[in-house]
Amino acid sequence: RVAVVAEETLGGEQTEGAVVLEAERAGAELVYRSTDVPPPSAPPRSEWDEVVDAIREADPQLVFVDGQETVGLYAALRQAGVDADIVGTLQVDGDDLARDPDLVLALSGSYLVSPGVDVTTRDSAEWGRLVIDMAAVGVAAEDIDRAVVLGYAAVDLFLAALSDTPDPLSTEAFHDVLNGGWEYPGIGRMVCGGWWPASHLVEYPCAALVRVSPIGDPLATVVPLTDFNVATRPAPADDPADSDDPDDSDD
Hints:
The chain has 251 residues and is α/β, with parallel strands linked by helices. 34% of the residues lie in helices and 19% in strands. The strands form two sheets. The protein has a seven-stranded mixed sheet with strand order 2-1-3-4-5-8-9, with helices on both faces. A two-stranded antiparallel ribbon has the order 6-7.
């Protein structure tokens, strides 16, 4: 039994649709869906009573929450005693949680999807290399957060594509490589790969799942970076009766 609360944006609608499809494929029952999370351009929502009451009445076993301005919803669900796993797309770093006990309390026990990167698995050779490289430009290991990893990955992607560009080097040749079926391998268990040019438009199906805990490390990896299969829903067939084109018929 799944409930979905998504952001009131095109991206939120797409995420809602994806979760609905995933629930169907998993044989789960969708018991509640809404786009009640304000868009980033709007002020954060100050009260969630109406949404929480509706979710509690639907009695889900899993609540999926999409959007950044959602900390209040996580907290309200727990305070209301909603007995369900809460999974969301809120992006936080361990450093954010270490500095803000109230944030830990609000998110405690929740699971967060981390698309593209995982900043919690720090025992790999790739993370060790990142620490060395960041030290070379004056960034201490304790200051490495999600933003640093994303910037590092962007440079790594650029250099990887550049190394595959044939001579003579030119912007056109680089463009042709990056947009000609090239694949970015990613960085170990830290950064997902990508396929191009599809990655301009479609997020690579790779993510980690982390859990917020008030004990020990505030963020712990539950599922490491994993490539997932892509599920698609067939487009509905056009009904010739709805068409204005006289030639658009079964004949």
